[in-house]
Amino acid sequence: MMTMNHNAGPGLHAEAGTAAGLPVAPSRALWAPLGLADVTIDGGFWGDRQAVNATAMIPHVDHWLEKLRWTSNFDRAVDGTVAGDRAGREFSDSEIYKLLEGMAWEIGRTGDAALEARFAEIAARVEAAQEADGYLNTQFGREGQRPRYSDFEWGHELYCFGHLIQAGVARARTAGLDDAFVQMVIRAADHVCREFGADGRQDIPGHPEIETALVELFRVTGQQKYLDQATLFIDRRGHGHLGVIDFGQQYFQDNVPVRQATVFDGHAVRALYLAAGAADLAVETGDSALHEAVVGQTLTTLARRTYLTGGMGAHHEGESFGEDYELPPDRSYSETCAGIASVMLNHRLLMQTGDARHADAIERTLFNIVATSPAADGKGFYYTNVLQQRVEGLMPDPDEPSFRAAAAERPPFFAVSCCPTNLTRTFATLGAYIATHDGEGVQVHQYAPATIRASLASGDVTVRMTTSYPDAGRIEVTVAEAAPGPWTLTLRIPSWAVATSAGSGATLTTADGQTRQVAPGYVSTPGPVAPGASVVLDLPVAARWTYADPRIDAVRGQVAVERGPVVMALESVDLGADVATARVRTDAPPVDDGHTVQVPVTVVDQDDDGWPYGGYRPGQTQAQRLVSLIPYHSWAERGPSTMRIFIPEERA
Amino acid sequence: MMTMNHNAGPGLHAEAGTAAGLPVAPSRALWAPLGLADVTIDGGFWGDRQAVNATAMIPHVDHWLEKLRWTSNFDRAVDGTVAGDRAGREFSDSEIYKLLEGMAWEIGRTGDAALEARFAEIAARVEAAQEADGYLNTQFGREGQRPRYSDFEWGHELYCFGHLIQAGVARARTAGLDDAFVQMVIRAADHVCREFGADGRQDIPGHPEIETALVELFRVTGQQKYLDQATLFIDRRGHGHLGVIDFGQQYFQDNVPVRQATVFDGHAVRALYLAAGAADLAVETGDSALHEAVVGQTLTTLARRTYLTGGMGAHHEGESFGEDYELPPDRSYSETCAGIASVMLNHRLLMQTGDARHADAIERTLFNIVATSPAADGKGFYYTNVLQQRVEGLMPDPDEPSFRAAAAERPPFFAVSCCPTNLTRTFATLGAYIATHDGEGVQVHQYAPATIRASLASGDVTVRMTTSYPDAGRIEVTVAEAAPGPWTLTLRIPSWAVATSAGSGATLTTADGQTRQVAPGYVSTPGPVAPGASVVLDLPVAARWTYADPRIDAVRGQVAVERGPVVMALESVDLGADVATARVRTDAPPVDDGHTVQVPVTVVDQDDDGWPYGGYRPGQTQAQRLVSLIPYHSWAERGPSTMRIFIPEERA
Q1: Would you tell me which of A36, B179, B289, B533 could form a disulfide with A21, CB atoms 3.0–4.6 Å apart?
Q2: Do A303 and B611 count as a contact with CB atoms less than 8 A apart?
């Protein structure tokens, strides 16, 4: 069914039309999206981060893109000097596009006039570099540069076009199709369709990204040619078209057609963007086989190739997925962008399937990857998100872009800096993950203080969520506005919200005052809910022990602590020793007073330092004591430390 | 003390002079080397492999170097066509040099006339490509190529010179200094000294190798300039001279001076070759601080950054060492060349220190890396040596060079193929690791059926070792020839040869028929041993359980089996199931009847296939049964399989 949003938000122009403020807008869905026009996050965990994004992260990223002269590559393309003077890597144009996308959503969300002016300035500089036929890339095609489309494996031209188109889609959905930037993007997309259409070049991009962008541009414009072009890019892939590389063809998913793959493989961000595009395409073409393939790949990947944090991509080499159950915590790559791409993919699948596993994956990834990458002040980032830090890292240089290895604190920017710009667009669009509607009712997937508006068959509905989640598990949903007709409020019960030795499971108190136990999945309130009525969901967020499937060898004999959706971590700052020495006792649940989580820890000193293999060596143990854990997303904010999520368990 | 070998072996020309047949010849040593002229391996585990090297591996490698047109790069350099038609990677010249080195040692060992003819043919083709000033490299300096010395980070010019010089040293020590190839190599080395001397270019090679080669050339020629040049290369390194790369400056050990490093870091082969060169340099210059630094780095690396197999280099990315205790078995890189380099380094340190830990490391690495890489037929190789194979690999293409990822069986050759040529020179020189002398006696370090000759102060001594080691632990050393004066026979007791629940420790039965317990380290027989007399060492090779230091998180809760120096492995072929399902009981020692090793295994089926984290999941167990293990070095000879060395332990 179609989404029909009539309320324009603060920065949303009325001419943005249907799908205004929707980060992704499938023309058909079991549950249709509610976007920036429909959902407002009112402070709390995510509201605070949206504010940091607006006030600090976007300006910080903008500053670094200028400082590193990646933005001014467009100026130099115009004045003819870029060939000998281009800054940044081959994909740096895309960072400017991702920032523009983030700005566009943020302008749509808040109507910030200063940001609008800055957007217009950058957009004009980009547009000035566009060539007459719509082509736009600062590193190819000029005298002294390589020719256009001469390096599909590594050149990233179509990847950059993809992010440009996504920025254009964001602008179209917040400022309307007539916007100059949108029109420029359409010229660029038309160039791609002419160049790579059925009768054109039969190539595919080394880095998927443009597929989802083209489907979204089809959704915005209604132009079939963009959908057709996305189909061509998806169908051409998987036949070994790209050149043979050391990482193997699976690096860019060119080893097996999308419809035949059973799990994600190769470069994680490439695989997940491709899957998001395939999921979008399946919706618009009604290709149920393609849809089922992507769903199967996603669920298998969640079962076998995903970290406790929701992070994806085990290998540093090739930034790729590992084999099933190969999930080392210390060499976890778990790139921030892969987490973001997983959220994008699972959001698409959730809308089509109504399967709570996708909402669970989104929640897990948001709290433990998307919230972990940026520093609290929004001016530093982790590119990789390790689950175990073995050595105290070095403090990053505040004035130089870092390489990717884990530093003691979050570096300000990177030589390859896809993640910071990706975060700006993600934080600006967080509202879209909160809820959906299906004409008959509203489904709430993520819990945050928020206002949700939807136009249902029975009339307009507005509900307000009040909660300090995830600190506390109580979520109160109050109906602020509702026509008298029937509608249904549906709430997600996270998979972890079950009875454990630490406490009972989730309960729901309906408007009639009845309280009942509710099981993981979705629960719907019976009948219409009148204005002023409240529903209260209580989720058991108290800290609990979490074990890994024994096939995940790398954390055998270890145990983690989760508190609600938040993965906890032990940091040396709290232990007062290297976390390598910690052993935890699990006889009783973790101690959780609602503010602090503590676990009983024994510190074990190993005898140094000869050949490390032989008879069993239990080590010398010190007395047991209670040690505080911290949320993983807030680790490395107190200087150099060692850290681990999975802690060796001391056997009785 | 100086080594003084007067006996020329089968292929050793008398004019090879002192140090004839010695793969490394320090001018001073606590224990001096005995080389190809002094030690003959008479069949058995290593003798068989030397034969395979001679009859199969060297011809196979030679064939592939021609097939891939890496050898004929030299011909094309001569005819002027190489610029547009060069085959192979930037270091491919070095493969021809390593093959020549292997051939030179093999000719020295056996006097094989056909091999001598082939050596001369290839050597002539290489020499023809040398330029007038001594420079020699097929990828730089010609029209259409990059200029000489324009890429120290990745160009590998000095690395290639290093291997060329090592081939020249091998030829000099087996055919004499007047050999044409040796003279060509000297011209090349003189070019390097002119170009990079104290007043020349202040650069260093991105890949260390030439340092040890130059010291060895000094030893062969007595020319101080080569030693001085090695000193310059060592002293210049560690100051960030090379360009900044993604892997970090530690990749090529340019982050910290050699004398200040405390452990090996960065690219493992680079680090170990550099250390071998530094160790050589320290001997010749009497630089005890440098010597102590390398010893400390080596012992710390053995204690914290070495696999049970002796393998080094945990990371695929950058082929580098991991952090302390970061030793994942499934993503072990453990490159064959790093194992070979570790053997070279530990051999050097053993001669200087008499510390049995270095001999232990050599034994472990020879049996579990050097013996593991090549296929039984000598026509396939593992580049990386994983300790856990999670999925059945694909069969390698028999006609194409492979990439490095673990295949189901050993690929015939690689696109980057440093390991096969490195193995040819290693197998040809195995005899050098067996024993040393110190003028007063003979020290036996490695056990194999062999004949050892040494010229001692008391006169010439010849001893014969008879053993089926490592299958059995009995080693009989019989004196075949000895002057009547006093001399000492010293035998190494491996560190694993201690009493365990599986049996008692090592015993020594001296010529007088007395048997006594002997502890790990070195044991010397009292007084002179007369011709005809025998000493018998019994080592407890029966299979034993081996645990890892608890700081090696990746194998926590798992246990390995070793039999003598041989690491055992569980392969799915024997289990009849994926080795991921195996749990082993360790209540009793492994069952070892002298031919077969078996362990009690329970197969555990895990419930598929949802989110893999939550409550503890013990799985469904099947009945316990005995399953055979195989020596790790013989895994993957029976088709696709999964394999693991460390097996999860079933708790009682």
Answers
A1: A36
A2: yes
